[in-house]
Amino acid sequence: MKSDRQLALINLLTEYKILTAPMLAERFEVSKRTINRDVDELCLAGIPIVTTQGKNGGISLMEGYTIDKRILKKEELKDLVAGLKGIESIRKSGAHKHLQSRLCDDESDMIIDLASYYKNSLSDKIEKIKGAISGRYIIEFEYYNPKGQEIRRAEPYKIMYKWSGWYLLAYCIDKKGMRVFKLNRLWDLKGLNQIFEPRKLSQSDLEIGSHIADDRPVEVLFDKSVTYLLVENYGPDCYVETPEGKLHFKGFYTNESYIISWLLSFGNKAKVIAPESLILKLKENVMIFD
Predict the structure, then answer these.
(1) Which class for 96: exposed (0-12), middle (13-18), buried (19 or more C-beta within 10 A)?
(2) Exposed, middle or buried by CB within 10 Å (0-12, 13-18, 19+), for 235?
(3) Per-position b or e across 32-42, b if 16+ CB within 10 A of its CB
(4) Domain map of the chain by residue range?
(5) In the predicted model, is pLDDT for residue 278 greater than 60?
(6) How remote is the C-alpha of 167 from its chain's centroid?
(7) Which of 59, 65, 99, 145 lies 20 to 30 Å from 218 when distance is taken between CA atoms?
């Protein structure tokens, strides 16, 4: 099973220091692409695997690193298993149990579930995108945003999990720039028979926040009964309680349609103070709804 293969891969790297993908593929009777996927997943789980190019290159563990059970603490082994379980939560198989029994007999104190309500479709999307990233081929998909639906073509680079959601970092061919796409808004995904030359990504490209900058201020008075919702979204320091018992919230937003929808969801428990342009937009939406 996959988790057994990944554990064996770690053991081989510990023993032989450096091995090539073709050697590992032959050893486990799988494709080089499968080995590359295993390496990616182990890296996500916290195993520092290094790949080097060139004549003497290959796959190895970071210098000085060991996964000897006699060296790793029990809590570290439990955390490693929890991380691998998190990866398995977005896959259709449940192969992590064999790996857990080999690394650690006890359950971790953490449960990491990265799946969404659309687990099956999410797993399919992630597998297709990972294949496109590995094969360096362009993908096409239907994307839903506040302006409607659009067909996009993109060069995929990274799959990210952040802000309780899955995102794709890709170069959008239609918009001619790096973009972040939310996977739950991305449907009818297919690979095109077009290979692309990978672009060099900067550190800012890899930081999802740099593509979604909150730069428009907003002030709102909330009823105290919705405190838990503000804390859930922005933390306990996002508001100041007024003498009248209201919650004075100051924040920033990017997407106008989203902030309007969010504010309207509070009904009469929220009153926007500023900006004036947002107040007018809210009034227009209420009139249209009526």
Answers:
(1) buried
(2) exposed
(3) eebbbbbbbbb
(4) 2-103, 119-210, 216-289
(5) yes
(6) 5
(7) 145
pLDDT score for 251: 85
Q: What are the tokens at 149? A: 């639906």
Alpha-helix runs per DSSP H in the chain: 2-16, 21-28, 32-44, 74-88, 96-103, 119-135, 203-206, 227-234, 256-264, 276-289
What 3-state class would DSSP assign to 178?
Answer: strand
pLDDT for position 19: 86
pTM, two decimal places:
0.53
Helix (H) or strand (E) holding 60: strand 58-61
Residue 31: both structure tokens together? 């494709």
Summarize pLDDT for 100-145 with one digit per residue, the tens.
Answer: 555 555 555 655 565 555 556 788 888 899 899 999 999 999 998 8
Question: Which of the residue ranges 96-100, 169-173, 284-288 would you say has the lowest mean pLDDT?
Answer: 96-100
Contact 179, 158 (CB under 8 A): no
The fold of 216-289 is Alpha-Beta Plaits (3.30.70)
User: For residue 75, is pLDDT > 70?
Assistant: no
- Map tokens 């503000």 to a residue: 230
Residue that has been written with the tokens 């919650």 in this structure: 247
